[in-house]
Protein 1
Amino acid sequence: MPERPQAAFAMTARNLPHLFPPDLLARLRACVEIDPAAVAEDFADPVVRERLARTEILVTGWGCPVLDTAALDAMPALRAVLHAAGSVKGFTTPEVWKRGIQVSSAAAANALPVAEYTLAMILLAGKDVFAARDRLRARRAHPDAGLAPGVGNFHRRVGVVGASRIGRRLIELLRPHDLLVSLADPYVDEAEADRLGVPLLPLDELLRTSDIVTVHAPQTPRTHRLLGARELALMPDGAVLINTARGSLLDHDALVEELRAARLTAILDVTDPEPLPAGSPLFDLPDAFLTPHLAGSQGNELARLGLTAVTEAERLAAGEGLRHAVDPAVLERLA
């Protein structure tokens, strides 16, 4: 029987049992030699460095220290990094790619709960659920059923900003519903949009023609304040803006002005800054619905991320290629 590759965990230690419950940990230990009691949270720790000197596969998660030159020099045998989370931007460096180290990410697995959250918010917003709840609380009486003009999800126009993993998964989830979905993304051409089954629109046109706009673009210098005062002013009266991407994509001051004017509704799972200061008007404006960055994997959904890393480890141990390899050439425009 061939010797199992040497592996090590690098992440915030308290996350490990959530990412790798007993059944997944057993699968991982069946294909690699790894100690769940030894989790690297600091690559400069002498005890950690001794163990990393033999490490061929690094299994990472939130809280992984930066893989800079010094850290990589301490891991001369390292050939693969399996990230049991989404973006690898926070801890990888150009030196990782220069050394030919393979990197895998569970970003596709993390895209699913974000897309599910967004689908739920689109359908609830289309039924005006949040405002209806507030009216019911205030009046303690039901309005006449079925007589609310403008409410409902039949042929409601949904604009998706960004064909990221999450944006694409959302488009799939929206397909069974009687919604009119469009896409804006500068990196997508008409042929690709046809394959996704949605019309491709310039951003301004998408904003002007959508009842609900949902943001799924990455955080890059190009997308900073992607939706500012000019862009928000293009949205129709009564439109809904959903952001599960990054708070920096929105000009929050401009958004507050639109909300104060009761012209738009906003559903925000991310903000800038995050968390918001206690005095932010977004907490009190009736047309703002805030959640605390929970659209991504939570609770038992973390095991889906661990499963991705375990499957990748099994492939490596079997001499197969990674299924979710990160391409450094497109990393800059990924979330």
Protein 2
Amino acid sequence: MPGWNASDIPDQSGRTAVVTGANSGIGHVTARELARRGARVVLACRSEARGTEAVSRIAAELPGAEVEFAPLDLGDLKSVREFADSHAPARIDLLINNAGVMALPYAQTADGFETQFGVNHLGHFALTGLLLPRIENVDGARIVTVSSGLHALANIDIGDLNSERRYRRWVAYGRSKTANLLFTHELARRLAAGGSGVVAAAAHPGYASTNLQTAGPQLEGRRGIERAVGLANRIVAQSAQAGALPTLYAATAPGVRPDSFTGPRLQGWRGAPAKSWRAPWTLNDIAGERLWVASEQLTGVAYGLS
């Protein structure tokens, strides 16, 4: 694993990948590099304008690449179902649950969920469940969910998943990223129990320079904080190209184990992909099962896995 980079991605010819939030940041790099290696890639994005522009950028850089846009708003379960019914490929080798929001002011999704929990976890939980019949019989298929080292900020509160009692943006973000890891943990367990060969794994980018960090301050008009975060991104953060490597490793490298968590090698902040530390609560079987049951009830999406 030392020094692993995008040139080490195995040939992906004949494989189909769905990447959520692929119009910018690490999602865009992930989609581009999979396409570079021969995969057909569906860029599942909320904005048609940004999604089609991202497809054009990849096509310009990689003539002949099989890339396409499909509409998907993870903050609206109706959109998630429409994607699964009308836009998703019939066969999926790689599902990359990449899209996310960070530390936003309190808001709710179209279905009334707290936005960070609703988009980062519930939207991807519903999407994965709806697409699973197109994944589980595909040889070598993988489901990679992008979490964050900042999951360590908070465990989930099963009695207050939507932060209705008290909302603290960074705690809510940490909980949503913990939910990503608990989801991966429980999905991996249930797939194995059912005899499936699908690998469910997780990854995180460390501190990568993307628009994720500035979205909250920009939304609230906090220009000073927005400028400070932008400066930190330029000075401290690694590039989106480097930040995408753990996701690409989890999606394509040989020998990736179910429920593994891959991040940057150097203190989890930057560097080549490596096994990443994770909080003990993200490996709790009881918490994983309780979150799973609650997620099925909230989304109305039942997996049929036990």
Protein 3
Amino acid sequence: MPPKRHLTARRLRLGAELRKLREATGMKSREAATLLGADAVQMSQIESGVAGVSAERVRRLAGHYACTDEALIEALTAMATDRTRGWWEEYRGALPPVFADVAEVEHHATLLREVVITHVPGLLQTADYARAVYTYMVPGLPKSKLTPRVEHRMRRRAVIESDNPTPYETLIHEFALRIRVADRQASRVQLQQILDEIEQGHVTVRIIPTDQDGFAGAGASMMYTGGPVPRLDTGLRDAPTGTAFISAEPQLAQLRTLFRKVEKATLDPVASRDFIHQLTKEM
């Protein structure tokens, strides 16, 4: 198959998983290429996500690697044959690639868990809130670049607002809810937006109160997305070079542990909803 034009996070993940399966057997890339009827360059392109791979080849590789996890094989096959052109593809070229990659990961997720400390989660933001954040974080951002950023953020909400919403649980620090990124009215509307999502029943919000003792999780912001099988879960964290996509099991285990630790510092969902109600009145 010809090389792919865009190295999306999903394609990179498929190649990485195939490489993990090969390395687990101790087989060299050249050996795997020979068994596949390909050359070393083609194998390298497949494992790096540069070139696509057919479902038949995925199954052949799994057989050569003695992989007996049928659920994983089916999931990898689905990734290889997925030709979905999601709405996020409209923004490639107009926005940094990570915008589309995050939306794609969210679209395919079976569950979404998020911890946010300093801002309202992107999936719950209003347009005015998102506009204020982008304007502040990127001084001098022209309208031609600001508008698609805000539009993209609003369209991401489809994963929690569709007819078949993805289960979403977020832990938000009280600090994030009290900061007025715009003005009082925008903050009030933002809080009401969160309450509306809670009332729909597809979003779970837990608040981390500022008077919580022993909370040292100021750097705990993260998103954890469930894959079709646990091995294909993905973590997202901010890094100096941008958003980091995490797929290694030891790191994913750390993120799951971090989420549980932060969750212990939160109010329960009912108390959190009541807290936001009260804060809305005070705003």
Protein 4
Amino acid sequence: MVEEGAYWLAWAQISGIGPVLLRRLQQHFGTLATAWNATKVQLGEVEGFGFQTLEKVVQQRSRLHPEQLFTKHQQENSHFWTPANPDYPRLLLETPSPPPILYYRGEVELQENLGQKPMVGIVGTRQPSEYGIRWTRQISTALAKNGFTVVSGMAEGIDTESHIAAMKAGGRTIAVLGTGVDVIYPHKNRDLYKQILTAGLVVSEYPTKTPPDRTHFPRRNRIIAGLSRAILVMEAPLKSGALITATYANEFGRDVYALPGRLDDYPSQGCLKLLSQGASFILKELDELLTMLGAIPQIDAIEASTAPEQLMPTLSPELQKVIDAMASDALPFDFIVQQTGMAAGSVSSALLQLELMGFISQLPGMRYQKS
């Protein structure tokens, strides 16, 4: 039997099928294996599948063999996850556009993948001022010492400073690349790259040997936002990739913080814009920031010995609505969405939390049942 992960890979090879359409396919058919064998008419029922996309699917699908493709891909890329893999980062899976393939190198910590260890993204300009560097170092150090994993993009400037400070403080860090995980960019960060491999991870949605491309970096920013519980923007001009990350963070329901700066400082203009739009201030009292970040709900596993019935009254209204829609028999994802009347993304997030709390179990084929 061909693994579901092989179909994530196969679908991703078809031009015009991006992460958003893949997510819709999975939600509509329950599994991408089922979608692979669907007719043209059935595929046309999925939102976003227009005439041209359907023609590409029909033409290219017949030339692809998922099992063979998956085996060859494993030989060329030794470490990667698909959303079908239980180790795929849970927070990233909550987003509407999780990468169909997430490659990684370094030291995996499953608590991070399960959402049980807090991860905070730090982003900013490639040309920071002394002020931005100083505060990036202080905040990254404080986060690392208090058990947070620092996520950034290994670019010059703020990214580099956040990675280095976190590791110097004895913490973990994750670098999200816009290249293959074996390609170091910028090249001057080759020593930093080697250090990260021993104190965290480098991840990317691009296969090995993929060179840098200007279109890759804005896309990778959604992964930084998706992995993180909150995003801290240290210094950013108005035209900055950091603002793209903040936009994704808002879309994904993450908290956004910005470092205030002077009105006439060019590197601070993006931060001031974010603050005017409702981002939280990063203030001098770091204890207050740590308290706020610590108050962000984590995906905490509950001891299996605890009876679910005793905990049901403490569920949020959204979680209660989803659990009420569950029956003793396994139900497909689409049916649960229909029963609750909630958005598919909200249902997916609720199911993830309920599963980690021990109230439900996920079965093959995107089916769920009460535990």
